[in-house]
Structures are given as C-alpha cells and as structure tokens.
Design brief:
single chain; alpha+beta; four-stranded antiparallel sheet; two-stranded antiparallel ribbon; 5 helices; disordered N terminus
Length: 165
C-alpha cells in the first residue's frame, strides 16, 4: 500500500488508505453483529486546498486531515455536532482540542510559518481532508468504533492516545 519516490521514500496514498480501511472496517462491524456495505459510506475526498461545509442533515461523520504523507487528525462529528465538523478545527480557541491548536503547539511544525491569525486559512490551503459520512440511523457507537479503528490503523500525529510504533 503506497507509492515510492525515486529515493526509496514511501509516500502513502491517502485515498487508498481510507478505501482499504473502510473495506476492513465492514468486517470489524460484522464481528459486532452490525451489517454494513460500502453503500453505507459516502466518502468525500478534498485535495488541498479544501473547503469546509456543513454536516448534511441526518448524517454523522468521521473526518481526517492529511499533510505531506501523514495523517494529522482524525475526528468524529455526531448528528448534532455541525460546529465540530465545519469550523472548530480551523481555530485554536474554538474548543479544548482542535487541529489548529495542535499545529500551533507543535515545535516540529514551526517551519511552516503558521500564526494564530492565519492558521485556519493555512489548514485549508495546505491539508487535504476526507469526510466519511454515514447515516445517523447507525448510531454514535458505530461512529466511535470507526474513529477508534482509524486511529489505530492510520496513527494520526495528534491522537496521542494511540501508541506509536
């Protein structure tokens, strides 16, 4: 899984990672006696620059931010969490945990010249985003399981609860 640059460096294909993860998650859900198919997922891939949009009525989502061959953040938004889905990750003061806050607090990211006043635009201009939409009828427990599965599988940089190997 992934491509290789001429120097031998692995450059993962973020779309393939998501597609393969959803296929495998269907098997995980089946172990929990939940029947799903690929038709239960609507996947919206947004290359950088991306834009934010509202969470569609009746939907829940897992979203992820991708930069330079790595997942930065993977989160979930339940059916009543439009602000989390739409805007909170683009502002460092909007919530207790946001991609903006994580980026600004990361010394390894200082060479990207991010500032609190432009971090939202920086995120939109430099990261790709995936939105994985599912119908709210599946419930937030399934959504939480998918989020946990993707944390373990994709190892996003700003999910420190996941042991990095």
């Amino acid at each position: 899984m992934g491509r290789y640059l001429p120097g031998g460096e692995n450059l993962s294909d973020w779309r393939t990672e998501i597609d393969d993860s959803i296929k495998d998650f269907i098997s995980v859900a089946e172990l929990a006696h939940v029947k799903l198919s690929l038709d239960d997922f609507e996947i919206d891939y947004q290359e950088a620059p991306h834009s934010s949009s509202s969470l569609p009525d009746g939907k829940m989502a897992i979203y992820g931010f991708w930069l330079d061959g790595k997942w930065l953040k993977i989160g979930m938004a339940g059916p009543n969490s439009n602000a989390r889905y739409t805007s909170q990750h683009y502002s460092p003061n909007s919530s207790r945990s946001s991609l903006a806050k994580s980026l600004l607090n990361d010394q390894d990211m200082c060479n990207w010249r991010m500032q609190p006043e432009n971090i939202g635009d920086w995120i939109k201009n430099n990261t790709s985003r995936v939105n994985i939409l599912v119908d709210r009828k599946h419930g937030t427990m399934l959504l939480a399981l998918l989020e946990a599965f993707l944390h373990l599988r994709l190892r996003p940089r700003y999910e420190r609860k996941v042991p990095l190997t």
